[in-house]
Amino acid sequence: MAKKKAEEKEMKENDGELNLTETDNQKSGEQPEEVEVSDEERLTEEDHSAKATVSKESEAVINIYTSFNNTIVHVTDMSGKTISKITGGMITKHDRLKANPTIAMFIAKRITEEVKDLGIKSFYVRIRAKTRNPAPGPGAHSIIKSLTRDGFKIINILDTTRMPRGGPKQKGGRRGRRP
Fold this sequence. Notes:
By secondary structure, the protein is α/β, with parallel strands linked by helices. Helix content is 41%, strand content 21%.
């Protein structure tokens, strides 16, 4: 190890001297000497370029809106440009099935078909339910589950359900809605 470090220091010092001699050689019209590169150095350079191509996997954001009547999935890249948008109505025409977990699995399959070609391997997930709802609809969990089953990495899951903070008076009167 110590020998290698000493050799590297000598090489750096020699490089500085070569630069001085190269400028002298260029003035006199001579060709500068070529420095030989060993096979090990070439291999390490190739390894670094291979690592750069392997880490070319990109990320995307999945916005899932699940109410108890429908499921809407909007896939965007990190800057916010739309890649894909799929709803429960695009999968089935039965109103009662649009928020079904089975339909949500079919939505996830459609997303994987559209996204795999783009080289996206990981997702940031944002789940949103209807305003004031304590829990998202039935399709959100099954979408995430089927995406992980298809080989995608889920980096982060965030609940972005809107919660009112004060605001105008709710309808229903002082004693609330009565049956």
